[in-house]
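User: Predict the structure for this protein chain, please.
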Amino acid sequence: MNPRPELSGGARNHPWFLGSLLRCILNKPIVERLMTPLPDLQLGSDGVLSRIESEDGQRRRLMEMGLVPGTTVRLIRRARVGDVIEVEGRGYRVALRLSEAKALLIESA
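Assistant: Here is the predicted structure, written as structure tokens:
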């Protein structure tokens, strides 16, 4: 079976074609367009951690705290002063600096 359909008839509406077309235009996969940094979530809203965009040391530290791709996280609160946010995931809460939280890309749940 050919995974890429022919472009005749209604095949132009096939998700594969539309996704490939957008990837060519935007030079990025469609999924990247739907991800938002963790601090941009509304308070109390959930999301699924999709990617950690940071250097290896920080990425490793975040993953050791249980923030691995595929984890459902919830933004609990933001500090009034400073740059700290509280995140809940895997049954416990973690406080993160904004610089760390911006590296966590979230898909809406």
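The helical segments are 15-26, 30-34, 56-64, 98-101.
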